[in-house]
Amino acid sequence: MVLWFIATSVATVWVVFRDPRFDYRPLIAGALLPDAVDVWFGGAHAMHSVVVVFVAMIVMVLATIGRRRLRKLLLGVPIGMLLHLVFDGAFADVDTFWWPVTGSFGDDELPAVARGWSTLLLEAVGAVLLVVGCRRFHLRSGEVRRRFLVSGVLSDV
Fold first, then answer.
1. Residue 89 pLDDT grade (very low, low, confident, very high; cuts 50, 70, 90)
2. Lowest mean pLDDT among 25-34, 53-62, 77-86, 87-96
3. What angle do CA 27, 65, 37 make, to 5 degrees?
4. Rounded distance, CA 70 to CA 60, Å?
5. Of residues 99, 1, 84, the one with CA closest to residue 107
6. pLDDT tens profile 56-66
7. b/e for 2-32, b at 16 or more Cβ within 10 A?
8. Are 1 and 122 in contact (CB under 8 A)?
9. How far is the C-alpha of 36 from the C-alpha of 136, rounded, in Å?
10. Quick check: 149 and 22 in contact, CB under 8 A?
11. In a 10 Å sphere around its CB, with 0-12 CB exposed, 13-18 middle and 19+ buried, how is residue 143 labelled?
12. DSSP-derived secondary structure for the chain
């Protein structure tokens, strides 16, 4: 599942922050990261743990002390990871969600796989949200699209 996580993460951050200078590229990477890593382990593991997300946030903050611009750029990665957990319903698997506090992983597949065919419905909703977003932010224009790819910024203009 890709479109669902991209669309819901971008929409959430846009609605909550309304920061015209926010770089959405690290957010998108962070939103896709949990499944991209955990697929190699055969199911929902460490990247589907809220503890790992908070550790990633702390490491990022400590690593960017005195580098405000880099911090603002990298902040999108753990935010995207957290939004992935929210929109994946990862909290339903308590063992994995709270690992290592719980001491073990659950035996569950990736939530996107476990949902079966309903994953296609979520992907369709994500596609619709992306089309609406492309229209809202004028990404059909080649110039605006290039500016987004280079800067990661979405603009109303």
1. confident
2. 87-96
3. 35
4. 10
5. 99
6. 999 999 999 99
7. ebbbbbbbbbbbbeeeeeeebbbbbbbebbb
8. yes
9. 29
10. no
11. exposed
12. --HHHHHHHHHHHHHHH--TT--HHHHHHHHHHHHHHHGGGTSS-GGG-HHHHHHHHHHHHHHTTT-HHHHHHHTHHHHHHHHHHHHHTGGGSHHHHTTTTSSS--S---HHHHTTTHHHHHHHHHHHHHHHHHHHTTTTSHHHHHHHHHH------
Tokens of 9: 């993460």
Place of tokens 């809202």: 136
